[in-house]
Design brief:
The complex is a heterotetramer, with two copies of chain A (about 230 residues) and two copies of chain B (about 300 residues). Chain A is α/β, with parallel strands linked by helices. In chain A, about 30% of the residues lie in helices and about 25% in strands. The structure holds adenosine-5'-triphosphate (2 copies) and magnesium ion (MG) (2 copies). One magnesium ion binds next to helix 1 of chain D.
C-alpha cells in the first residue's frame, strides 16, 4: 500500500524535515505515527497524498510512484485516499453537508446515494444536527469531526488522519479512534498521526516514532513502543 | 473523455454551485459585478459616441459634391450628352442638372441685395453655362473623378473644393479611423479590467481550489463552476449598462428630436444600433467572464 | 490625540509595513497595480484626445468671420469711417479692409476660367462695393454683432453664413461640452474602478484586519499602512501610463509634424499639456488609492 | 478581574451556546475550563475579549462592561488581555518575529525593547530558531507556540488560552503549562481551556466544567473535579 525508499524532504532555506526514511505499510494495517512537535510527521503524510514531493527518494502509494503522477491526474489518485488535515481545510462557503458531499460528488455518485451516505457518516461522527451549519459556525471539535466525515465518506483504500483528536475531549476522542478501528476492520489501511498518549497506549498497534526527521523506532521492525 | 461526459452530466449541479458561490461570497461578488458594470457602461457609452461620430462624418461626406460647369456655347442636347458621359464614369452616385438660367439665379442670389441690379441684365444673353452637381460614392477618389470629368468634351470647369475638400475628406477619415482605434483600445483595456477583476476574485479562493483538488475533484470539475460564476458575474454586470443604454439613448433621442442642436449633428436612430450594442455588451461580459476564469484558475490547478 | 501622535511617530514603520505587504502579497498587488495602470492609461488617452478636440474646435472657430459689403457709392474716407465704427463695437477681434478692385478680383477668381471674360469689363466702372472681413472674439454672439454692423450707415450687406454658421458654432460648443462631460464621466468611472480594486484587495484581508484588532492595534494603526499601500499601488500603477503618455505623445507629435493629415487637425504641443496630464494621473492614482483604502477598511474596523 | 452575571449567548438560528452563566474570577487566579466538544467553552472566552457580545446578561472584564465599550476603544481594551486562539490567527504575511512583535509595536514599545522581549519570549516557547519563518512554513505545534508567545509577550493582566496544547506532544504540553503557571505566579490571571485530562489532573487548580452551555461544576464553589 505504502512504500518509502530513502526519502528525504528539504524545504527551502535548507530545512531538512525528513531524512532518509524507508518503510513499508501493507494493505489493511493500522499504524500510529507519533513524535514531538516539528519532528516531521505532517511532512511524512503530506508526501503520501502528494501535497509535497520528496527531495530525494521514492514514495509509492497504492502502487503508484507519487512524484511521477502528472498534475492533471493527481485528483484521481487522491480519490483513493481520505485525509483528515491538521488544519481541517473545510470549504468555507459550503455547509457541513455540502463539504462532506463534495467528496462523493466529484466521483459522480448518484444524488440519493450521496444524501444517504453523508447523513450516515455525519451521524457516525456525532454531527447529525449540524448538517446545515457553515464551518465558521462550528466549534473546533465539530470542524474536526466534519473533516473526519469527509475523509471517510467515500470509503477510501487508505485513510490518513493528522491529529484527528487534537480538538476533541477524551470521551469523543475514544469514540473517534474506535470509529477508525472499525473502518480499518472493513479493510481500509489507516494511518493516524497523534500526540494523544492515552490513545496510543490503549490500542496496541504498530507505532512509528519520528524524531527530528528520522524514524526513531517502528514497532513492526523491532523498535520500542512508548 | 470520461471527464468530459461527467462534466456535462453535472452541468446543472455546477450551475447551482456557481450561483451559490455568487451569493455566499456576497461582498466579493458585488465588487466584481460592480467592476464589470462600470466597465461595460464605459464601453457602451464610448461605443455609442463612436457610432454617432461615424454616422455624422459619413453624412458630412455625403454633402461633398463636384460642381461641373459646361461651356456656355453648347445646346441642351449636348449638355445632356455630358450628363450621360458623367453617369457612365465610375464612382458616380448622382448627377443633378442646373440650366443656364438656374445658374444665373444662383449668381444673382449669391450677390445679395445688389445682385438683381448687377446681373439681371444678363438674363437675355446669358453669359453663364449650364452646370451639373455630381455626388460620388467614394469621396476618397473625388480628385480622380473630377479629373475624368474635366476630360469630357464641352466641360468648362470642374470644382470640388480642391485641396480643402481633399483635406476635409482626409480629416474625416482620420477622425473615423482614430475613433475606431480609440474604441478598440478602450474595449481591450476594459476587457483586461474585467479579466483582472475575475482574476482577483479567483486569487482570493486559491485555498478553496487546493482543497477541492485534495478531495479528488478533477480539474474540469473545479473549473466549470468558476467559469459559470464568471459568466454570471459578466451577465449580471451587463444588466445595468444595457438598461441604461436602451432607455437612456432612447430618451436622449426623443428629447433632442434626433439631433444634437443642429441637423449637422444628427443622432443615429436608436433601434438597431442599441440592440447591437446590448448584444455586444452581454456577449463581452459573459465571454470575458468565462475566459478570464478559465485562464486565471489555471495556475491553481497544479498542486 | 495620543493616537494621532503615535501615528506620526510610527510613519516610517507603517511605510515599511505597507511596502512589505505590497511585496509579500505579490499576486494580489500585481493585479491591483495592473488595474490602476490600465485605468490611468485610459484616462490619459481620453484626456489627450479631449485636449486636442478642444484645441481643434477653437481653431475652427477662429476661422469664422463676418463679411461686410459697403455701398458702392461711398468714397474711401467714408469706408474708413465704417471701419472705425465696426472696431468700436463690442466683440470685435479684428477688421480687414478689401477695396473695390480687390473685391472684383475675388469675384473674377470665383468664376473660374470664364471669370475674366465675364467681368473684366467692369474694371473701369466697378459695380461692386468695398468690403470688410471682421473676426469676433466670442463666436457665440456673432449673430448680434452682425446685426449691429448692419445698422451702421453705408453698410450694404452683412454675411456671416447666417444659420449655417450659428449651427457650426453651436455644433462646436456641443462637441466641446459633450467632450468635457464624456471625459469627466469616464474619469469618474475609472476612479470607481480603482477604488473598487483597492476595496477587493482589502476585502481579501479582512481576517488579517480582525486579527490586528484582536492583538490591540488601534484603528489608525491598522488603517495607515493600508492607506500607504493604496497610495503605493496608485503611484506604481501611474508609472507606466505616465511614461507612455510622455514619450508616446512626443513621438506621435514628431512623426506627424504636429498635424494629423492636415492643418485642420493640428495637435496640441506636447510640453505643458503632458506635464499637466502626468501630474493629474499621479495625483489621481495616489489620491484614489489612499481614499479608497480609507473608505474600504472602514467596515472591517468594527468587530 | 472577570465577572459574568446571568450571561446567555444565542447564535443565529437559535443555537444557544451559553445559558444563564454567572461566575467571578479574581485577579491572580489560575482557572481551567473544561467540557465536551461544542459545550460552549470557546463561546465563553470569546465573550471575555469581545469577539462576540452576550445576548443577555453582563460581562465585566478588568472592571469594564465589555458590551458597552465603543468599537473604537475595543483594541485598547484588548491590550489588557493576551489570547491564544484555538485557530492560532497568525498574520500570514508576517514572520514569526513580526507576528509576536506586532503586539508590542501597537503599544509603542521602543524598538530595542521589542527585539529583546520577542527573542526572550520565543526562546521561552522553544521557537528561537524559527524567528524568520512565515506561519505557513511551521508545523501545527510551532504555530501554536507562536500564538502563545504573542499572547504573553506584552505581559497582559489577563491571559486566555483556548486549547494551548491541542497540537503539542505531551512533553511540550507540560512545558507550556509550566510556563503558564510561571506567568500566573508573576500576577497574571490565567484562564485555560483544555481537553487534556493529564494537564488538569496533574495541576490541581480551580476547574470550571461547562456542559451544553451550562456551568456543570466549579471547584471553587464546591463543585467536583474530574
Ligand atoms: N513549508 C515549509 N517551509 C519550511 N519549513 C517547513 C515547512 N513546513 C514544515 N516545515 C518545517 O519542517 C519541520 C517539520 O514540520 P512538520 O509539519 O512535518 O512537523 P510535525 O511533526 O507535523 O509537527 P506538529 O506535531 O507540530 O504538527 C518543522 O521544523 C517545520 O518548521
Ligand atoms: N458563529 C456561530 N454561529 C452559530 N453557532 C455557533 C457559532 N459558533 C459556535 N456555535 C455553536 O455553539 C456551540 C458552542 O460552540 P463553542 O465553540 O463555544 O464550543 P467549544 O466548547 O469551544 O467546543 P470545542 O471544544 O470543540 O472547541 C456549538 O454547538 C457550536 O456549533
Ligand atoms: Mg503536523
Ligand atoms: Mg472551542
Amino acid at each position: 500500500m505504502i512504500r518509502l525508499e530513502n526519502v528525504s524532504k528539504t524545504y527551502n532555506r535548507g530545512i531538512r524535515a525528513l531524512n532518509n526514511v524507508s518503510l513499508t505499510i501493507d494493505s489493511g494495517e493500522f499504524v500510529y505515527v507519533i513524535g514531538t512537535t516539528g519532528s516531521g510527521k505532517s511532512t511524512f503524510i503530506k508526501l503520501l497524498y502528494r501535497e509535497i514531493k520528496p527531495t530525494t527518494g521514492i514514495v509509492e502509494v497504492v502502487g503508484l510512484d507519487v512524484a511521477k503522477i502528472p498534475n492533471r491526474k493527481v485528483p484521481y489518485f487522491r480519490r483513493n485516499i481520505g485525509v483528515v488535515f491538521q488544519d481541517f481545510r473545510l470549504l468555507p462557503t459550503k455547509t457541513v453537508f455540502e463539504n462532506v458531499a463534495y467528496a462523493l460528488e466529484v466521483i459522480d455518485t448518484p444524488r440519493h446515494e450521496i444524501r444517504k451516505q453523508v447523513r450516515q457518516t455525519l451521524d457516525l461522527v456525532g454531527l447529525g444536527e449540524k448538517i446545515n451549519a457553515f464551518p465558521h459556525e462550528l466549534s473546533g471539535g465539530q470542524q474536526q469531526r466534519v473533516a473526519i466525515a469527509r475523509a471517510i465518506v467515500n470509503n477510501p483504500k487508505l485513510l490518513i488522519a493528522d491529529e484527528p483528536t487534537g480538538n476533541l475531549d477524551p470521551d469523543t476522542s475514544v469514540e473517534i479512534i474506535e470509529l477508525l478501528e472499525k473502518i480499518n476492520q472493513s479493510g481500509t489501511t489507516v494511518l493516524v498521526v497523534t500526540h494523544d498518549r492515552e490513545v496510543v497506549q490503549s490500542n496496541k498497534k504498530r507505532t512509528i516514532v519520528i524524531d527530528n526527521g528520522y524514524i526513531d523506532s517502528d514497532t513492526s521492525t523491532g523498535g520500542y513502543g512508548i | 473523455m470520461r471527464e468530459l461526459i461527467s462534466t456535462f452530466k453535472n452541468l446543472p449541479r455546477h450551475f447551482k454551485t456557481a450561483l451559490q458561490n455568487l451569493i455566499r461570497n456576497n461582498v466579493m461578488s458585488f465588487s466584481s459585478i460592480f467592476a464589470v458594470t462600470i466597465t461595460l457602461a464605459m464601453i457602451g457609452i464610448v461605443g455609442l459616441v463612436a457610432f454617432n461620430v461615424q454616422d455624422i462624418s459619413s453624412s458630412i461626406e455625403d454633402e461633398i459634391s463636384i460642381y461641373v460647369k459646361l461651356d456656355r456655347t453648347i445646346d441642351d442636347a449636348q449638355a445632356e450628352a455630358v450628363g450621360t458621359q458623367i453617369l457612365a464614369l465610375d464612382n458616380i452616385a448622382n448627377v443633378e442638372y442646373s440650366s443656364k438660367s438656374a445658374e444665373l439665379d444662383r449668381l444673382i442670389e449669391s450677390q445679395g441685395e445688389a445682385g438683381a441690379a448687377l446681373f439681371e441684365s444678363y438674363r437675355e444673353d446669358n453669359p453663364l453655362g449650364a452646370a451639373y452637381t455630381v455626388t460620388v460614392t467614394n469621396p476618397d477618389l473625388i480628385g480622380q473623378t473630377a479629373q475624368k470629368i474635366t476630360a469630357i468634351e464641352d466641360v468648362n470647369t470642374v470644382d470640388y473644393g480642391g485641396d480643402s475638400t481633399t483635406d476635409l475628406i482626409k480629416t474625416l477619415n482620420t477622425v473615423r479611423n482614430g475613433g475606431t482605434i480609440f474604441v478598440v483600445a478602450l474595449g481591450v483595456i476594459a476587457l483586461f479590467m474585467i479579466a483582472n477583476t475575475v482574476k482577483i476574485t479567483i486569487d482570493t479562493r486559491k485555498t478553496e481550489i487546493s482543497i477541492m483538488r485534495m478531495v479528488g475533484a478533477s480539474n474540469w470539475y473545479i473549473r466549470i463552476p468558476f467559469m459559470l460564476e464568471g459568466m454570471l458575474i459578466g451577465l449580471v454586470g451587463a444588466i445595468l449598462p444595457c438598461v441604461m443604454l436602451f432607455y437612456g439613448y432612447d430618451y436622449i433621442y426623443k428629447i433632442t428630436n434626433g439631433m444634437v442642436v443642429t441637423q449637422m449633428l444628427s443622432l443615429v436612430e436608436p433601434g438597431a444600433v442599441i440592440v447591437q450594442l446590448v448584444q455586444a455588451l452581454v456577449g463581452l461580459g459573459a465571454g470575458v467572464g468565462i475566459i478570464g476564469s478559465f485562464i486565471s484558475i489555471r495556475r491553481y490547478l497544479k498542486f
